[in-house]
Amino acid sequence: MEGRLKTTELTIRGRISDMQSAPQTLHHSVSQQRCGENTASEQRAYSIYVPVVDLKDNPLMPTIPSRAKRWIRGNQATPFWKKGIFCVRLSRLPSAQEKQEIVIGVDPGSKKEAFTIKSDGHTFLNIQADAVQHVKDAVEVRRNMRRSRRFRKTPCRANRYNRKKGKLAPSTKARWQWKLNIIMQLSKLFPITHIVVEDIKARTVSGKNRWNTSFSPLEVGKKWFYDKLKKIGKLSLKQGYDTKKLRDDAGLSKTKNKLSEVFEAHCVDSWVLANWKVGGHIEPDNYKIMFISPIRLHRRQLHALQSAKKGIRRDYGSTRSCGFKRGSLVKHPKYGLTYVGGCSKDKISLHSIVDGKRLSQNIDQKDTKLISYNIWKSH
Q1: How many domains are contained in the chain?
Q2: In the chain, which end has fewer C-beta atoms inside a 10 angstrom radius, N or C?
Q3: How far apart are CA 369 and CA 355, in angstroms?
Q4: pTM for the complete prediction?
Q5: Looking at the structure, do residues 182 and 93 belong to the same domain, yes or no?
Q6: What is the 3-state secondary structure (H, E, C) of 175-219?
Q7: Closest CA relative to residue 341, chosen from 332, 333, 356
Q8: Contacts by 245-254 with C-beta closer than 8 Å and gap 24+?
C-alpha cells in the first residue's frame, strides 16, 4: 500500500469534461493527472462512480464516468449536484431495473468517523467525516447569556416547560443526527439495502465519576440512532473485536494516529464491515477518500455577545444570506465552486469548500449561480 496517493482537492468546474472528478467533488492531484505515471492497478483503484437516479429520483446502480458522459451528450441524462456530489438523472426509462445488494459500513467515533458504500463488485465511495463537537460549548454559552440577562434591565418572560425532559441531550443528538444525515443523503443516491455499524459501548468504572457521566448519553444516543437506521435498511451490528478480526483476516493494519487523513485511520474499518456483509473482495479495491466536515450555521440569536458603543448590542446570526441558505454551493466566475457564508448589506461572502477559508466578502449575488444546498464542506 506504500506509494498510494491521497486526493483531497476539489473540482471547481461542472462541465462534462470534468466528470472524471465530479462524483465526490474531488479530482486527482497533479501527479495523478499524468496518466503515464500511474499503473493500471492504480488507475482502477482511483476509479470513480457516478450516482444515477431515475425520473422520480429513485436511486439506481451507479455507473462509470465514461458511460454517464455518453448519456449526457446523447441527451439521455441530465447532470445535477446533490449535497456537493455530482450525479446524473436519466431522461428515459432505465434499460434494466435489477439492483445489486449495496451495503454501507459505518465506523463511528468521537472526533473522526468513516463510511463506505460497497457492493460485491465495487467500492463506490469512502468517506471520512469530522464529528460534531461544538454543540456542548454552544449550549453552555447560551445558558450563560440567559443567566446574565437576569442581572440587567431587560424584559423578562416566564419560564417555559423543560423541553429537554425525556429527550436526548443537545450535544448527544447532534452527534448521532450528523451520522444519520450522512446516511440519509447517501441513501438518496445509492440503493442501499444493508447497514453495518461497529457497535460502541460505554462501561462504568467504580469510583470514576467523570468517566461514568458519559455512559448514559452514549447508550441512549446510539439506541436512537439504531432505531432510525432500521427504517432505511437492514441493520447489522459488529463489536470492536469483530472488526479487528476482519482487518487481520484481510491483512490490513490500522494506524495509531486516529486524526490522520489516510485510509488506514478509519475507512479501513468501515470497508471491512461493508465487505463482511456483501463480500466480493479480499483487499480494498478503492482507496480514494472524500473528507467532509459539518458546516456550522450560527442560528439567529437575540444579539451579539459583546456590546458595542453606548452598550448597544447588534443583531447576530442567521441561516440566510441575501436569499441563499448558508452553506449552499454556488459557482462564481472567478472563484469557481464555493459555498456561501455570511452577508453584509447586499453583498455575500464566499468560502473555499476545501478548507473553509473566506475567499471574498464583497460578492454580488447576481454574479453567482446556485448549484445545490449543502450540509458539509470537503477538506
Answers
A1: 3
A2: N
A3: 21
A4: 0.78
A5: no
A6: HHHHHHHHHHHHHCCCCEEEEEEECCCCCCCCCCHHHHCCHHHHH
A7: 356
A8: 246/272, 246/273, 246/275, 246/276, 247/272, 250/275, 250/282, 250/283, 251/283, 252/283, 252/284
Q: Is residue 185 part of a domain?
A: yes
Q: What is the pLDDT along the chain (379 residues), one digit of tens a residue?
A: 444 433 333 332 344 444 433 334 343 332 333 333 444 433 433 347 899 999 999 999 999 999 999 999 999 999 988 877 889 999 988 887 788 999 999 999 989 999 999 999 999 999 999 999 888 888 888 788 777 777 777 666 677 776 666 678 888 899 999 999 999 999 999 999 999 999 987 777 777 776 666 567 788 889 999 999 999 999 999 999 999 999 999 999 999 998 898 999 999 999 999 999 998 899 998 898 988 888 887 776 666 777 777 767 666 667 777 878 888 888 899 998 888 888 888 889 998 877 778 999 889 888 998 888 777 877 6
Which cell goes with 379? Answer: 477538506
Q: Assess if residue 340 is contained within a domain.
A: yes
Owning domain of residue 212 = 100-147+165-294
In a domain, 90, yes or no: yes
Can you tell me whether residue 294 is helix, strand or coil?
strand
Is residue 116 within 8 A of residue 183, CB to CB? The reply is no
Asked whether residue 141 falls in the same domain as residue 196, the answer is yes
Phi, psi values for residue 178, rounded to 5°: -65, -45
347 and 202 housed in the same domain: no
